[in-house]
Amino acid sequence: MAYLDFYLVPVSRGNKAAYEDLARISGEVLRECGAVRIVECWLDESGPSASSYHAEAARQAYSEYLEFGAAAGAGPDETVAVSCVEWRDKASRDAGMELATRDARMQFGDRPQVFDGGRLIAGGFTPMLYESDETARLTGELRRCMSGQTWFGPSLTAVLEGVDAATASRRDPGVAHSIWQIVCHLGVWARYAAYRFEGGVPRELDEDDWPPASSVDDVGWASARAAMFAAYREAEHALGAMTAERLDGVEPTTPVDADGEPVTLRRVAAGLAQHAAYHAGQIAIIKQLLADPDAPA
Q1: Range(s) of the domain holding residue 97
Q2: What's the CATH number where 239 sits?
Q3: Integer angstrom CA distances of residue 54 from 8, 51, 68, 71
């Protein structure tokens, strides 16, 4: 069963940008440690009054309602931030948080204080009613292709484990592309998908489909892998922010395939996962051939 961590903390209004920066860093770490979904919220102080959340009979029964900021203990110059981190289950949460809290990126002692940690309210919850939306299912597919449990074989994280720069850059006769080239190629299309999910109109690629390696060494290889995974995280984040209506929307600029069917953003998302699955299998075969050229592929 899914498990949810909720956090609530008063934050100075002037620290919104600094809070967003911390949220991005912690979000990246938590996703790497197994978090399924992360939502960061900033209180809309011009939004509905507290009374509007009650039924009409209840509104007549009470003369005053506690506003969110007051309930959180926010001062005159403060507002409230609320965070939700979703995990696959309680065990995944416990293991993930153990890793996350030890990660060097989560030690913010060298930064100016953004909020008072002593006023942070946190708790874990098990859902009573859970309705998954379309984008959540698609982002889940992308995430599993990157580092989760897949039906087709190893994820990209698993298949690239132990591959060094020399192996990644090696291209034997009969092999169309090296592992390094495939990783860069995957990043190209993940960045393009992120651009589309963020509202970009269809266009030709603005970078080489099969970009050359910047430097064939361990540093360059680590950079290539990091860029690919960052591109997929960007695509996942942009996809997760979309509405179901946009997934299937057809605009005048929406391309069509050879059969005349529109290539909707839902198809782009599914295609991105399929693309990752295809090339993960290709990398697995190349690794096998490099290890033993006579082995059956």
Answers
A1: 3-125
A2: 1.20.120.450
A3: 22, 6, 14, 16
